[in-house]
TrEMBL record:
Major subcellular location class: membrane
Protein name: Integral membrane plasmid transfer protein
Listed GO CC annotations: plasma membrane
Transmembrane portions of the chain: 37-55, 61-85, 138-157
Residue ranges constituting the Pycsar effector protein domain according to the UniProt record: 20-154
One of the GO biological process terms: defense response to virus
A molecular function (GO) term: nucleotide binding
Compartmental location: Cell membrane
Organism taxonomic ancestry: Bacteria, Bacillati, Actinomycetota, Actinomycetes, Kitasatosporales
């Protein structure tokens, strides 16, 4: 048997559904950024490991310079990716677990007696936007590093 929870007082059912859907959508976006960043971190780590092992060979100077620039660029991308997955533990938004961790049982019940979905959507949207911005920059740096690696390979082939 399926039951439906009535919309909070003063909120029409469509707005209630929209708020619930938006919360789920934005939370999903935050999770997707973490998954993408994890994959890119693994890729960056593998490429950096390959660069370290290739650095032991005697390469022409242009290839060495391009390889070093690629390694530095890839390391910068890895730093941005680590910032994507770094937990945000500020509790000043009143709609997240870091805030709830500072409250006692009665304060939690009082805080949850009001509809905080709009605040949650706002906070999660800001988190998602920041994560996607960092992720985009990391991808741009990774692509730049790959171009530098192509230059290094071309320099090594000369």
């Amino acid at each position: 048997m399926t039951t439906t929870t009535p919309a909070p007082v003063g909120i029409d059912p469509q707005t209630d559904r929209n708020l619930t859907d938006a919360c789920a959508t934005v939370a999903g976006e935050v999770a997707r950024t973490d998954a993408k960043a994890s994959l890119l971190l693994a890729f960056a780590g593998a490429v950096l490991a390959g660069l370290v092992s290739a650095a032991r060979r005697d390469w022409p100077l242009p290839a060495q310079l391009a390889g070093a620039a690629a390694a530095l660029t890839l390391a910068a991308a890895a730093v941005l990716l680590l910032l994507v997955v770094r937990p945000r533990l500020r509790g000043d938004d009143r709609s997240s677990f870091p805030h709830w961790a500072r409250l006692d049982d009665d304060e939690i019940r009082a805080g949850l007696s009001t509809d905080t979905r709009a605040a949650r959507i706002r906070v999660l949207s800001r988190i998602a936007l920041r994560k996607y911005t960092l992720l985009r920059r990391a991808v741009d740096l990774t692509l730049t590093a790959l171009a530098l690696l192509a230059l290094a390979a071309a320099g090594a082939a000369l």
